[in-house]
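Annex B. Sample input.
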Amino acid sequence: MTGIQQITELLRLLHLASPSLPIGAYTYSQGLEAAIETGNVTNEESAQAWIKESLSVIADFEAPIFWRLLQALSNHNEPDVTYWTELFLAARDTHEFRAETIQMGYSLNKLILDLNIADESLRMIMANQAEIPLPTAFACAAVALKISPDAALSGFLFSIVENQVLVCVKSVPLGQVSGQRLLLSLHPDIETTVNHAKQLEDDALSNWSPGLSILSMMHEIQYSRIYRS
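Annex B, continued. Sample output.
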């Protein structure tokens, strides 16, 4: 890859992973608001512990599924795209988590169509999905923009972590410097998650996180809240 190609890929990745992407990510906390409400997250140290633990769950399920979706979409393998999409959706174990990924996936897929960045084969594969979660839409956008799989996975994980840090800055609350220090400290964990997700075998996938599921269900009936999950 030439220097110009590397710059092009970087710019496309930054665009795709940007918090300004109009898919509504800022309206979700992925269970973090409930953790703040119950006192599990109260400062920078506990916020770091929470996000690290969240990444360990993502590393065993969401990230490796995203990696498989990248391969399937790159190869225009519709049966595999459908299989991993449906498996991911089936594993969303609360109403909020399912609604979150479908809403953002729908918004990103609509953006892909509006920007006309995907070829006809990719558009047909996406059109044939009954529902489109965020990992499938993000993988499609990455393939359409010719972002390498490793870079796409890193960007996908960074966008999740960045959103979690922004929730902490606004709702714990943490100061801006504290938030940036927290985000920087999580870079090695993102790298570890990338490497782990690429190597995980199919029969090792697991989304076992009962504590997070319980917090999500508690959030659904939380009296006062800012975020939708």
